[in-house]
Amino acid sequence: MIKFLIRLPAWVLTGIIVTLIAYLTLVPRPLPDVDIKLFPGVDKVVHAIMFGALSGAILLDWSRRRSFKSLTLMIGGIAFVVSSLAGGLIELLQGAMGLGRGCDQWDFAADCVGAFIGVSVSYFLIKFLKARSDCHS
Known about the structure:
Layout: H1 2-7, H2 12-26, H3 42-64, H4 73-97, H5 105-135
Helix pairs in contact: 2-3, 3-4, 3-5, 4-5
C-alpha cells in the first residue's frame, strides 16, 4: 500500500478531494432526490467528513512526497488552516452565487471541526504508515 501511495502523482489525492467538494457544494443539485429520512443536522456531519478528508489528503500528500518522514505540528496546522479557509470560501461562494445554496456559519463550523479531526486522524495514520515502511525497509 505504501509503495502505491508513493507512486501516485504529486497531490492527486488532494486534487480529487477538492474536485469532489467543489462539485458537491457549488452545484445547485449535485445529487438526485431520494426519499430517505435522515437525522437532523446530517448536512453538518457531511461537511465535517468532506473537510476532514481534505485536511487528511493534504497531510497524506505532503508526507508521502517525503517518504512519510517530515510530518510536523506546523504542517498539520497548515493543513487545518487551508481546509478551514476552503470551507469558508465555499460558504461565501454559496451565498454569492444565488443558485439556491446558502452561506451558513454552522456549515463553516462543521468544516473547521472536520478539518481538525482529519488532521488528528491523519497524523496517527501517517505515523502508522511510516512505522510500517520502516519495518519493511
